[in-house]
Design goal:
- The chain is an all-alpha fold and about 140 residues long.
- Helix content is about 75%, strand content about 0%.
- The protein is flat.
Length: about 140
């Protein structure tokens, strides 16, 4: 059922729907699937740990954040998934262990600041290198 939702989202991208069209399409086709998914998850939750601890934890995680999962059905501009955000911050999660050797709290804060600045530049279509060069040049020139 989840794959079906993703297939619907792929179609919406392919057809280049406007946010309004996306919302109408989602309400017609995705909402019944999402509601069915929630119903099935509720049944699994009621079954207790019959499906195993890992499944039970995953089901509880999904149902406890049901409102967030269903949010894409309220606004055509909202993506159904957060894959882009996950990819953006993947390098931060991977680098955490390495940053334990950054030297000091101040250095670690600087690394965090620079990554935030880099990702903000990406989100806004700004060339990070040019941006930093412009700032440093302006600072040098007063």
């Amino acid at each position: 059922m989840i794959n079906l939702l993703f297939e619907i989202e792929r179609q919406l991208v392919e057809w280049k729907h406007t946010p309004g069209q996306r919302l109408k399409f989602r309400l017609r086709y995705s909402q019944p699937i999402a509601v069915r998914i929630m119903r099935e998850l509720e049944k699994i939750r009621l079954a207790g740990k019959e499906y195993g601890e890992v499944v039970h934890c995953a089901v509880n995680y999904m149902l406890d954040d049901k409102k967030a999962f269903m949010k894409f059905l309220q606004d055509g501009q909202i993506e159904m998934h957060n894959n882009a955000i996950e990819r953006m911050f993947r390098h931060i999660a991977i680098g955490r262990r390495n940053w334990l050797c950054s030297g000091s709290q101040f250095a670690a804060s600087n690394i965090g600041f620079m990554y935030s600045l880099l990702e903000s530049c990406k989100l806004n279509g700004v060339d990070f290198g040019e941006y930093v060069e412009d700032i440093l040049t302006r600072m040098m020139n007063g």
